[in-house]
What does this fold into?
Amino acid sequence: MSKLHLQRVGDTQAVFTRQFAASPESVYKAHMEPSLLQQWLLGPEGWSMPVCVSENKVGGQIRYEWVNEDGQGFYLTGEFTELCPFSKISQVQRMFLPDPTPDSHVETTFEPRDGGTLMTLRMNLPSKEALEEMLATGMESGMEDSYVRLETLN
Amino acid sequence: MINLDATFSALADPTRRAILARLCQGETTALDLAKPFAMSQPAISRHLAVLEQAGLIESRVEGSKRPRRLSATALDGIDEWLGMLRKALETNYDRLDRVLEALEGQ
It folds into this structure.
């Protein structure tokens, strides 16, 4: 049974929910602190994040760079648009593959629930053009790119 | 593989989204579909043709009528993409469980 639940909201939004056995403060920090993000925001086995910039302030810059064991990589940049410790993170971001994908808006909230934390992640679904580009890329190079698609929006 | 370009063009129009919402409730004839809209039946028929070409709806012949219904594979493109995203997120969050366990165990 998957712990991750997905719900579509109309044609334009997807909402993921996930329960964690840790406090909202810890889950929030794990989404903000580079040394923690570098331990989990990695996609499939074999990838690492040697560069992680995550400026903890509204307007703060985000830059995640990933590489795999073959030395291939890509990166994401973004900005925090709203930060409410330890309950809400809003950010806008885009991938470079190497051309930039359209901006993606992601809102993540953390609520105390059952002694742990209920995380809710809302994201805009990609536009027609973005989805077509991502699907086309995926068909060319398989699983690796489903990870790329993930990191576009996470 | 459905044609994503046709699918998103079809979904971009509010009348066509309303038609799809109506068809979510079950098979319906063009005449019944036209009723809630201030639109001629030929205009509705043109919207139905766009939806059918995009693979979002199907029709069948029943006497003089051609009832429409939602296609079973209507939104496979976006669902396929969301499925891949979900799988990748699951991997990350399972890893985050272990990071949090270490963090709170300190």
